[in-house]
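Table S7 (text form). Paired inputs.
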Amino acid sequence: MDHLLETAIRLAAKVHKGQKDRFGKPYILHVMRVMMRGHDFEEQVLGALHDVLERSDLTVVDIEAKGFPPRVVKALRHISRVEGETYEMYIDRVMEDSLAIRVKLHDLADKMDLLHVAQLDPADLKRYNRQLTAYHRMKKLVEEAKANMSLQVPVKKPRSGADRA
């Protein structure tokens, strides 16, 4: 399975070669940070792939042909923007898939990290506020899902006197 993560990284590096973020830094650095935030294999692979459909001519069929798991491909469909879709419609679609939600939270957390930003213009602030709203909306959904999970804790049977001997 590790080869699929390497394939995702190589594909992302090829797709994002020469692309810059809004601060003039190589875009692949953002992609790698999102990937590194992943807590499991699927989050890491999707993190590496999360912008390849939006920033290239690749299609879902191309991604499937590279052997990525159906679960990752499905989440990639949800996390990729569609032309003509509002941001709110997009976030609604992301929220239909748990893996897409987890990786989008990593994506937004990275985009909202202002540690190395010298100055924000009004467009940056508007984008930041929109991202922050989406982040909190998805985070709330995740927290509610965790709270509603029922934990199956095995009940220990008391040991009889014969068991203790």
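Next pair, protein 2 of 2.
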Amino acid sequence: MAINEFIKLLDRGVNSWNQWKENHPDIRGVDLSEIQLEGIDLSGIDFSMVNLRGARFREVNLTSANLRGADMSMANLRGTNLSGANLSSAHLSMICLSEANLSGANLSGANLSGADLRGSNLRLANLDRADLSTAKLNLCNLNGASMIGAILIGSNLSRAELKEANLAGTDFSRANLSEADLSHSNLNVSTLAGTDLIGATLVDIDLSESNLSRANLIGANLYRANLCGCDLIGADLRGANCSEAYFIGADLSRADLSRAEFTSANLSKANLSGANTETTEFQDAILPDVW
């Protein structure tokens, strides 16, 4: 079918499209690349495995849409409502989804590398194992999202909201998380090597066994955070609030802890060799036997 025939089918409504898809399960290669749609309701539509490369959607309702395995690379869905949509295993590299509503969407395994998601609502979204490397996620709402094993190398998440998110095993290497709020989130066994966490809120966060070597944590709030067994070699914690945090067995060798607050923190068995502690506050802290 030519693209004009597909458009006529879409004009007949979602039910007609979905019925056609159901009646033709063996058809492959539905090509809607570079299609332009505006102001229509496509909620619940089945676009699974459809080629939407370079598509332009404006004020289109795609709530609860099935976009599993669709190719949406270089598409522009700015401001589109995708809440509850299934985008698992979709190809979304270089896509523009800024200001889109993706709350509760399933993006597990999706390729979102280089995607523009600035200001988008991804609250409670499933991004497990998704590739978000170099993606723009500034000011995004990712509260309560699941991003287990996701790749965010070099991504920009400055001032993003990630409260109570599950980020276990996620790779944030060289990402920008400055002024982001990750309070009460799980980042167990994650990679944040060379990550920018300047002014980030990390209250009551689980970073145990994570790699934060050379991470920039200047002015970060790590109150009651769990950093047991962390690699913090060469990390910059100047002026950070680490009060009542747990650093049991952490490696802080060559870290800069000047003006950092470790009041009532637990640093037993931590490695502080070569660390700058001249102006560090350790009042009531549990310190390692040798340092």
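Residues 218 and 238 are 5 Å apart (CA to CA).
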